[in-house]
Amino acid sequence: MLRSEEFRPIFSKIKYSFYAAIFMLQILNKHKIYPAIFMQAIRYTIIIIMTRIDNKI
Questions:
Q1: How big is the CA angle at 32 (ends 30 and 37), to the nearest 5 degrees?
Q2: Helix or strand or coil: residue 57?
Q3: Hey, what long-range contacts does 14-18 have (CB within 8 A, 24 or more apart)?
Q4: Taxonomically, which superkingdom (predicted)?
Q5: How many domains, the chain?
Q6: Structural contact between residues 12 and 53, judged by C-beta atoms closer than 8 angstroms
Q7: Where does residue 32 fall: left (phi above 0), alpha (psi -120 to 50 degrees), or beta otherwise?
Q8: Which has the closest alpha carbon to 57: 14, 19, 21, 12?
């Protein structure tokens, strides 16, 4: 049987990238940034968060 601890890093990554996406959407709604810039910003934010989580583990 697999322990839940083994899956926790994967779930936390998904959760954090989801929060990042929501946060970026809120910024987009506030400032009406162009979608292309917004999509790039989301991509970089998720990459940064993923690498930070990878470094912690």
A1: 115
A2: coil
A3: 16/49, 16/50, 16/53, 17/46, 17/49, 17/50
A4: Bacteria
A5: 1
A6: yes
A7: left
A8: 12
Match 């912690």 to its residue by tokens.
Answer: 56
Mean predicted lDDT score pLDDT of the chain: 72
| Pairwise pLDDT comparison (57 vs 46), residue with the higher score | 46
Average pLDDT over residues 16-34: 74
Range of the domain at 46: 4-56
Q: What is the pLDDT of residues 32-49, one digit of tens each?
A: 666 777 778 878 888 888
